[in-house]
Amino acid sequence: MDLPSFPRLRGLARPAWQPYALAIALVSLAGCGHKAPEADAAMPVIAQPAQAADGAVAGRFPGEVHARYEMPLSFRVGGQLLERYADPGERVKQGQALAQLDPADANKQLANAKAALEAAEHRLEFATQQHDRDDAQFKQNLISQLQWQQTQDNYASALAGRDQAKQQYELAQNQLRYTTLVADHEGVITSRQAEVGQVLAAGQQVFGFAWMGEREVYVDVPESRVGGIATGQAAALSLPALPGRAYAAHVREIAPAADAQSHTYLVKLTVDHADPLLQLGMTADVSLQAGKAAVAAVIIPATALFHQGEHPAVWVVNPGDFKLELRPVTVSRYGERDVLLAAGLKAGERIVMQGVHTVSAGEKVTPIAPPHAEDAPQ
Fold first, then answer.
1. Which domains does the chain have, with CATH numbers?
2. Average pLDDT per run of 10 along the chain, which is 378 residues long?
3. Stated pTM of the model
4. CusB-like beta-barrel domain: from which residue to which, for each copy (predicted)?
5. 220, 262 in Cβ contact below 8 A?
6. Beta strand extents in 233-353 (DSSP E only)
């Protein structure tokens, strides 16, 4: 390498400027041997494979025990409530009388319908006799064609009148029978909405009624979690009133719309093998199993969840080049330490477990294990 010239040193003697030239030459040589800076190393991140959630608990909710069939009991006719034979909490049998309306008007209607039927039957009897007599005379040409047609018409009218009166009489009988409210099934009176002396309209509720037999548990599920529940999903029940006892159940029905006030969805679970100890109104702890509703679900630590605006997402490590991809996911359940995902991530895919706010898309990383064993996914 040529040494640079030093114009300002030319006047000096050789021994004087030679050390300066040597020092400058060494600096120049060092500059010529300097290499370009290396590319930045991959950033270490705590990343582990996502775990499958098969068999895990999809969610826990408080519930309340109800009957499979619950309905209001009411009279089919209107009137004044005369007597009440049952009270809330009372168990009744099928066909048992529960309440009575004043039957005075119904009795009068029945008597009127009976008198009308008797009159119609008398007219039919007379018309039948006339019909038989004129039939014989017409065959002997003793009466005219016109008279015979009039007799037939009278007979047909009398027959129709009798049938109509009979229907009215049967209707009046039903109206009288409807003044007594009876239980159409064995069950329990759950509430009372009418008092003696009150004038009721047809269909106005008198009692709340629950059938004996099948039992269900009602659960109010928030709208953010109803997507992880499906019909037929298995569940386990425990009740504070029955310590040590457990019941199996399954989801029978999911409300198609949320409640207008609470914005929750009513989910009904049928108890598979209910026993008499399971009383109406008991509170239950419902654990929905992540089976049929979450076959492909995975569970991740809560620290791995990242929010892209209002949408949840996770940082996925690409196995080929170890670069990060931000992937949207669907959350089925939020837990204290973990999150159940219903869609967007497969079991075994490696995701960033901690420090999700310190990385960026496309960044190359080096996955490392959590420093503490308790932080690793179970």
1. 45-54+295-375 (2.40.420.20), 60-67+213-294 (2.40.30.170), 70-102+179-209 (2.40.50.100), 104-177 (1.10.287)
2. 45 45 44 46 86 65 93 95 94 95 96 96 96 93 93 95 96 96 94 95 95 93 85 90 87 92 93 90 87 61 88 90 90 79 83 90 87 56
3. 0.57
4. 218-290
5. yes
6. 234-238, 246-254, 264-271, 283-289, 298-301, 306-308, 311-317, 324-328, 330-334, 338-343, 350-352
pLDDT attached to residue 371: 72
Task: Report angle CA 244, 247, 249 to the nearest 5 degrees.
Answer: 160
Q: What percent of the chain has pLDDT over 90?
A: 55
Taking only the tens place, the pLDDT of each residue in 321-355 is 889 999 999 887 777 788 888 788 887 888 999 98
**Token code pair at residue 34:** 């300097």
Q: Could you tell me the CA-to-CA distances from 28 to 4, 19, 22, 34 in Å, in that order?
A: 9, 14, 10, 10
